[in-house]
Amino acid sequence: MWQRIQTLYLLIASGLLVAMYFHQYPTGHIVLFSIALAAQLLAIVALKSRTLQMRLSNLAALVLLGLQVWIVVAWFKSETPVSIGFTDIFPVVATILDFLAARAILKDELLVRSASRLRAAKHK
User: Fold this and answer.
1) What is the Cα–Cα distance from 82 to 40, expressed in whole angstroms?
2) What digits encode the pLDDT tens for the residues 60-78?
3) Fewer CB within 10 A of the end CB, N or C, for the chain?
4) Distances (CA, A) of 21 to 3, 9, 15, 24
5) Which residues are CB-neighbours of 9 under 8 A, at least 6 positions away?
6) CA 79 to CA 59: how far, in whole Å?
7) pLDDT tens digit string along 78-104?
8) Residue 40 vs residues 21, 27, 48: alpha-carbon distances, Å
9) Neighbouring residues of 94: CB distance < 8 A, sequence distance ≥ 6
């Protein structure tokens, strides 16, 4: 479980989102953080179902992408100067890690299908 690279990607992304809870964000942002974090943690636990794991990873990435669009739009609409902190890049990094995890999960799934096809051909 821990030796798979996608698990490490998802754990790092989850850690970044947990770190976001320690800063002041609007309630809507926290709800989206929570949805993405839940999807990431479920993807870590869903080891036997690679397709579910890939879908959850993509869902988390899309939720975080939507959150980033919301933050950028709010930043441009803001009339008061808003400072950007170090933790504001965490959702960007978490989104990239989620997409990398989904890509690694897809590679695993293709490898398993290829091996299954070879085993089936060998037994014929």
Assistant:
1) 29
2) 999 999 999 998 888 888 8
3) C
4) 28, 19, 10, 8
5) 97, 98, 100, 101, 104
6) 32
7) 888 877 778 888 999 999 999 999 999
8) 15, 20, 15
9) 13, 16, 17, 36, 60, 64
> 3-state secondary structure string, the chain?
CCCCHHHHHHHHHHHHHHHHCCCCCCHHHHHHHHHHHHHHHHHHHCCCCHHHHHHHHHHHHHHHHHHHHHHHHHHHHCCCCCCCCHHHHHHHHHHHHHHHHHHHHHHHHHHHHHHHHHHHHHCC
Residues 6+ apart with CB under 8 A from 3: none
Tokens in use for 60? 């988390």
Rounded to 5 degrees, φ, ψ at 25 are: -135, 155
